[in-house]
Amino acid sequence: MLASDNREFEPATGDPEDITIAGLLGFLAGHEDRQLVFFHDGRSVKPGYHVTEVKAGTFAALDCGANPEAWAEIFIQLWDVDEGDRTHMPARKFSAIIRKVTEHVDLNPSARLTFEVSDGVRPIALYRAALPQLADGAVHVDLSPRPASCKPRDRWLEEGRKPKACCEPPVGSQPCCG
After folding, report:
1. Is 20 helix (H, G, I), strand (E, B) or coil?
2. Whether this model's pTM surpasses 0.85
3. Which of 7, 87, 96, 170 has its CA at a distance of 20 to 30 angstroms from the CA of residue 154?
4. Cβ neighbour number for residue 163 with a 10 Å cutoff
């Protein structure tokens, strides 16, 4: 259910810091025997980490400028634990987990990809994934905190225009939030 497209290594639309699930799997396909190591908060995930859940969703919202928004997002939950003498998961195993998910869940290959990371004690933290890199014989994926954003402001900046007040609604509309 994960369709391949020609944009495998492009970041998710609207955020150059993001990679899509298709981009991640496309990179891993060429490095299946290497360990897959995620990095967050200045350190790597522990060698015993698990992929505990993969979720796909489509969202509809109204942004702070009263503009309708819609997007698809995939959440991959990593349980950051140490278990015995395990090593970091091989890229092949991670890809197999995602393939197994696609037997039951439709994953949009260009959906925004978010990682949920927790050690089972601290609350889940949300991260975006950068393009994978090869380092020290392994595939490294840097996870950075998923920031909040003002979509109208982001669009204005993307168009090269000076942003209006962040939550300024379209002419004739009332603001929805404050």
Report:
1. coil
2. no
3. 7
4. 14
Q: What is the pLDDT of residue 119?
A: 94
pLDDT for 65 = 87
Find, among 104, 113, 105, the residue nearest to 25 by Cα.
113
Residue 139: phi and psi, rounded to 5, are -90, 120
Q: How many CA atoms lie within 13 A of 168 on its CB side?
A: 10
DSSP string of 37-55, one letter each residue:
EEEETTEEPPTT-EEEEEE
What pLDDT is recorded for position 99?
96
- Cα gap 108→2, rounded to integer Å: 6
Quote the distance between the C-alpha of residue 135 and its chain's center: 21
- CB atoms under 10 Å from CB of 78, counted, come to 23
Which residues, in sequence order, are CB contacts of 168 under 8 Å at separation 6+? 65, 152, 175
pLDDT digits (tens, 9 = 90+) for 71-90: 999 999 999 998 888 899 99
Q: Where are the domains of the chain?
A: 21-148
How high is the pLDDT of residue 159?
85
**Coil vs helix vs strand at 26:** helix
Closest CA to 78 of 21, 22, 139, 37: 37
Q: Which residues of the chain have pLDDT under 50?
A: 3-14
Q: Could you tell me whether strands 112-118 and 68-79 are parallel, antiparallel, or unpaired per DSSP bridges?
A: parallel
